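Figure 2 data, in text form.
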Amino acid sequence: MGLSSATEALVNFLTSKQLLPGSWANAISNQLYSIQTATASTTQTQAGGTAITSAAVAVTTANADDAVRLPKGYAGLEVFIANKSAAALGVFPAVGDIIWGSIGNAANLVLAQTASKHAIYKVGTVTAAGVATWYKVESN
């Protein structure tokens, strides 16, 4: 979704009557309102985790701790994750963000499905340096 450079942003602004390119508006709309179905990555790392690109995602896992990665956090962002499998799901923050209760870029687990296991991750704070802290509410 992002631009490759400040120069590209300036060119887009000066040569267009739009304030934002349509691709940006579509990407924002997708992140806020769409539903994603995903298979968690067996790589089980932050870099290898399946990227979450929507507001809600239903995830299946093959093994315990297979991984997904949250998008870069910003104030007010919420992501609903439903673990549809019998194995625990590893959830990583975007590089530079943190999940409260975890250390740095470490994974946070969404427990295995017992009936319908899900968690809501919400950005609670963003520092001046742009580091988002995610908080999790998990179903019983």
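Caption note: Residues 1-30 form one domain.
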